[in-house]
Design brief:
The chain is mostly helical. The protein has two domains: 48 residues; 209 residues, Orthogonal Bundle (MetI-like fold). 71% of the residues lie in helices and 0% in strands. The protein contains 15 helices and no strands. The longest helix has 48 residues. The radius of gyration is 26 Å and the shape is globular. The termini are far apart.
């Protein structure tokens, strides 16, 4: 009788253990399916960039080009001044990213570490500006830059990044709050001022958060289309995102060359993300530890 009861108990336990063992499998299947859904546009872009024109709109779709037309990439580089647009994009992205990092670090340190009247009120006002869509401030900002003669220059795309973007300030402030205050107190006892503490204590410990801000800033300015479209009217100042429009005419679009150029423009972002993926994920996680 005891053996029969033990056998029944073992039989009852198996389904529960079997369900528990299936949970990781189900999670992996869902993650793979979701990843595939997000990867399909990229796969189609790369596939189209290597196709002949007659294969692009064929039904059923041709996923694997035959033959591989590498000539599309040569046309993507030579049919518009790729080197010029790349230089403009790198200059705008580099200057704006530097401004984002420097200004956001200074403002975030002020909100996280310094004590001054109205600090919390000013921080709430700063956060409230994140709720304003870009379309609300687009026209007043354009009128301002037009009045001061900045249209058809890189300044409207660079200078705003040197005034502490609210989202980056928020990320860095959250991370700075997790750094033990005892480290700053020890530096203060050694005679360090606030700038020294920021440069030699806080910044060296904030690598993941700064890497996260750098990645966000790079992707934002590298992919920016609306800003350059509004402020840059001369082709000598065009960025890569505007240069992609040259593959479209009034009646036709060179889709194979357009997809090849799009793949080339996307490559730096992919390389940057995979190189800095560890710091990016760590920075995102750590910035939400302390409010």
């Amino acid at each position: 009788m005891a053996a029969l009861s033990a056998s029944r108990a073992g039989t009852q336990r198996r389904p529960r253990g079997f369900r528990l063992s299936l949970q990781p499998l189900v999670v992996w299947v869902l993650l793979i399916a979701g990843s595939f859904c997000f990867a399909v546009p990229f796969i189609w872009m790369v596939s189209t960039s290597l196709k002949l024109d007659r294969q692009i709109f064929r039904t059923p779709p041709v996923w694997i080009p035959h033959p591989f037309v590498w000539e599309n990439y040569r046309r993507a580089i030579t049919e518009f001044p790729f080197a010029l647009y790349l230089r403009n994009t790198l200059f705008i992205t580099g200057m704006a990213m530097a401004g984002n990092l420097i200004s956001a670090t200074l403002v975030a340190y002020s909100f996280a570490r310094l004590r001054w009247p109205g600090r919390q009120v000013c921080f709430m006002i700063l956060l409230s500006t994140m709720m304003l869509p870009y379309q609300v401030t687009m026209i007043p900002t354009f009128i301002l830059f037009q009045k001061i003669g900045w249209v058809n220059t890189f300044l409207p795309l660079i200078v705003p990044g040197w005034f502490g973007p609210p989202f980056y300030v928020f990320l860095l402030r959250q991370f700075f709050l997790t750094i033990p205050r005892e480290l700053a107190d020890a530096a203060t006892m050694d005679g360090a001022d606030e700038f020294t503490i920021l440069a030699r204590v806080v910044v060296p410990l904030s690598g993941p958060a700064l890497a996260t801000v750098a990645i966000f800033a790079f992707v934002s300015h590298w992919n920016s289309f609306l800003g350059p479209l509004i402020y840059l009217n001369k082709k000598a100042y065009f960025t890569l995102s505007l240069g992609l429009m040259t593959f479209r005419s009034q009646y036709t679009t060179d889709f194979s060359a357009l997809m090849a150029a799009s793949a080339l423009v996307l490559m730096p972002i992919l390389v940057l993300f995979f190189v800095a993926q560890k710091y990016f994920v760590q920075g995102i996680v750590l910035t939400g530890i302390k409010a």
